[in-house]
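Local shape tokens:
==================
===
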Amino acid sequence: KENVPVQFVGHPLVEEMQEMMSKENFFKRYDLESTKKFIAVIPGSRKQEIENLFSVMVRSAVELAGSEKEVVVAVAPNLSMELYKNNLPPNVNVKFILHSTHEVMKYAEFAFVTSGTATLETACVGTPMIVVYKTSTITYWIARLVVKIKNIALVNIVAGKTIVPEMIQGDATVEKLVSVARSILNSPEQYSKIKNELNIVRQKLGGVGASVNVAEAILAI
């Protein structure tokens, strides 16, 4: 727009997602059953997100998983376990995992993800997801007035279209989350389509080497 020369060097996130333990080692380290698939809950790293969304996301994941699958929660290192446990619904069986969020994203069959960078991280490993977000009504409408874009999820913004569902505000209920998630999991065609679209998003972010590329671009000035 302003005729400023710009060079896209790639997204450092792609580099960060390269180094992960194998699926076998991950399942073994965290005592997960290798014969069971699991549903991931990625509730974000802000206290407010845990208080607003964690319970709904966990209850949705537990209902979706049933008795045949496990539910795994990716714990943010900056938040206390007490915060998670205080917002955990009663009588649910979930596994909390710390320091292996990328593996949780990669090896999950499906994920419930709070809107933010985590949606791009989950896209990089190709795991179908539902993006969940809820804030105060006033904050939401102010944001809608100021920000003139259709989507709020980074993964959809990068894609330039809605490729994963966004369940926002009043739509972020257990009933709606489970219904939409089941429709995806019960349709191999839809599930595969989302994975393909996520792969395109990852390609848009560029390949490995963003850090080196930006250094070389600066030195070339």
